[in-house]
Amino acid sequence: MFRRDPVRAALQDLGGVLDRDLTQLRPLLRAALPGGGVIAAARDGRQVIVPLNLSPGLTREDRPFELASVSKPFTAALAGELARAGRLDWHAPLSALGGPLRGVPRTVTAWRLATHTAGLPTHPARAALTVLTRYHDPYGGMDARAVLDSVRRWAGPPGRFRYSNLGAGALALAGAVAAGEPCSAAGYGQALRRFVTGPLNLTVTLDPPRLSGLAGPPTGFGPLTGAGGLFASPGALLAFAQAHLDGRLGDHWVAAQRPPGRPAGLEVTAGWLARGPLRWHDGVARHARAGLAFHAGTGAATAILARGGEPLLGRRAPLTHLLLRLLE
Fold first, then answer.
1. pLDDT recorded at residue 141
2. Is residue 51 part of a domain?
C-alpha cells in the first residue's frame, strides 16, 4: 500500500480550515520544518493542529512549546490590558510608574517599547559576551535592576525602528510594576496571568516543559522573559490570536505605523509586525522556532512551532514565509 505523504496531508487539512488550496506550499513546508514541529490553523470556529515528524511524546496538542520572540505579543497584550484598566498610559513616560522605574529617560514610553522605537539597542551591552559564555541563558546573569540600568544608560533618541529584546523585556518589567507585582520575571508572569492569560483561560507559562525528544535545552531569558521566555501550546496561540480578532484584547494591535529604519514593506504596531491586514511575529531560540499570525480581514490565524534553530547556512526565513503564505 502507498503511504500518504504527511506534508501533502497536512496541507490538505490546513486548506480545509483556511478554505484554500495549499498544495503549492509543499516545498516551503518541508523547508520550514526540517526537524519536525507542529503547524496549526483556525478560521470561523474551525481548527486543525497537525504534528509533523515528531516523537509520540511531542504530539500532544496541549503540550507547551518554546515561543521565543512570539512572547512579545503577549507582553504587548499585558500592556494593553493594563492601559484599559487605567494602570498604564501607553504614551506617558515609563518613569511615571515610579519605584524601580524612576530615572528611566522620559522619552521611553510603553508604546515605544512595544513598537521598537524607544531608541534602545537590541540587547543589553553585556550580551555581546554572555551570548558566548552563557549560550543557552545569555541574560541569566542579570536581574531586573540591571535591565533597567541598561535602559537608563543606553536609551537614545526615539522614533527609529530598532528591534530590541532589551525594550520588550523592560516593558514586561514595567507591566509587572503597573500591575502591583514584583519587578521581576516572576512578577511579569503573575501580571500576565491576572490580566491576559487567566481571563482568556489560556495555559501560558514561564516554566519549560520536561519532555524528552526536544532538539536541545530551552533558551533562558532571565529578567528579559517578556522578550522571549514564554511557553504555550499551538491551541493556546490560536486562541490568543482569536482574542485579538474578536476584540477581547482591545485594539492596541490595530494602528500600524511606518517608523524610519524599518525593513522595506514592513509596518509595526504594539507587539506585532504588520503588512496590511496581516499581523504576525516570529521567534528563534537556540533549538526552536515559532511563529503566530492572523488576518484581520478573514479572521484566519496560523501558528507554527518547529524543532531546531535557524540554520547556519541556506535560507533563514522559510518559517515566516510559510506562516504568511498560509494567510495571504
1. 79
2. no
